[in-house]
């Protein structure tokens, strides 16, 4: 726009100069005034154009500032929403952990009660099978009634509790013996997966990684539908990772995510894989 106005001013001046030269420099006052008026008109037009352009630039800049302010406001809101969401997730995880801890305590207490019940039932059966005391004046001895061979055997809950107590005290061999006894005598028990898992835990506590890995693998292969399976697979993967077998660890983590995608261990596996890449 300024170039156009400048061009007009130049053309007016050139035309005036040509007219001056053509008339032999004898231009009249009216002609000079006409040139001056045209020059002033062109200048006024140029000033008006510059004023319009300035107003437009101010409007554009104002619009850009408003857009930037809106972007900043939206970014701030997104940051707050993201922070609130992360806080909610952390709080939810803490609540889940607390619930799981309470559930574990309740399960432990229930296990202890079952073990006590088994022990009392076994003791009661032993007392019932004991021969009665002879009465005074009896000449015929009372033959004892043979007790059932299994009456003196601890039940699966007793054996599991015995093994866990030994494991908590650091008696890893005694713990494995109790768990192995449970598997041998009660292979179809609902506690079999727990026994196999704790055998692996006892090996891990002793630092025998190969034996622990094999024991964890048995939990997954034999008791894949139990709640112990994803935990065993996760611990097997962690054992491989801490042993420097990164490729094997990644394979186990991916297997865990594939087989048990909704488990807490799968979430931990995803985080481990993210940090390993």
Class from secondary-structure proportions = mainly alpha
Mean pLDDT: 79
Global geometry:
rod-shaped
> Which percent range fits the helix content?
over 70%
End-to-end distance: 59 Å
Number of strands: 0
User: What pattern of helices and strands is seen along the backbone?
Assistant: HHHHHHHHH
Radius of gyration: 46 Å
Count of helices?
A: 9
Largest sheet: none
Uncertain runs are 145-150
Q: Strand percentage, roughly?
A: under 5%
Note the main attributes of this structure.
277 residues, mainly alpha
Description:
- This protein is 79% helix and 0% strand.
- It has helices at 2-22, 29-129, 156-168, 172-185, 192-206, 209-222, 228-242, 246-259, 264-276.
- Among the domains are: 1-48; 77-125.
- It has 277 residues and is mostly helical.
- Helix 4 (172-185) packs antiparallel against helix 5 (192-206), helix 5 (192-206) runs antiparallel to helix 6 and helix 7 (228-242) runs antiparallel to helix 8.
- The two termini are 59 Å apart.
- It is built from nine helices and no strands.
- The longest helix has 101 residues, at 29-129.
């Amino acid at each position: 726009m300024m170039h156009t106005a400048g061009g007009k001013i130049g053309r007016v001046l050139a035309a005036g100069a040509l007219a001056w030269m053509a008339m032999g420099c004898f231009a009249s006052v009216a002609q000079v005034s006409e040139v001056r008026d045209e020059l002033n008109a062109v200048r006024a037009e140029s000033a008006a154009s510059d004023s319009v352009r300035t107003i437009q630039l101010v409007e554009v800049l104002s619009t850009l500032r408003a857009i930037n302010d809106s972007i900043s406001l939206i970014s701030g809101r997104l940051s707050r929403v993201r922070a609130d969401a992360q806080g909610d997730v952390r709080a939810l995880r803490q609540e889940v952990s607390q619930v799981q801890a309470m559930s574990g305590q309740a399960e432990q207490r229930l296990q202890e009660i079952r073990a006590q019940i088994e022990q009392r039932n076994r003791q009661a059966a032993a007392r019932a099978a004991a021969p009665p005391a002879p009465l005074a004046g009896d000449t015929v001895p009372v033959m004892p009634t043979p007790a059932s061979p299994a009456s003196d055997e601890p039940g699966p809950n007793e054996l599991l509790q015995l093994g866990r107590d030994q494991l908590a005290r650091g008696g890893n061999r005694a713990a494995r013996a109790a768990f192995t006894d449970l598997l041998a005598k009660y292979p179809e028990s609902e506690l079999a997966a727990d026994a196999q898992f704790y055998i692996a835990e006892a090996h891990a506590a002793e630092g025998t990684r190969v034996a622990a890995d094999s024991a964890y693998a048995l939990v997954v292969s034999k008791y894949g539908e139990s709640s112990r399976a994803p935990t065993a697979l996760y611990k097997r993967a962690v054992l491989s990772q801490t042993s420097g077998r990164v490729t094997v660890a990644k394979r186990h983590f991916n297997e865990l995510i594939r087989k048990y995608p909704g488990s807490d261990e799968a979430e931990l596996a995803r985080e481990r894989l993210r940090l390993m890449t």
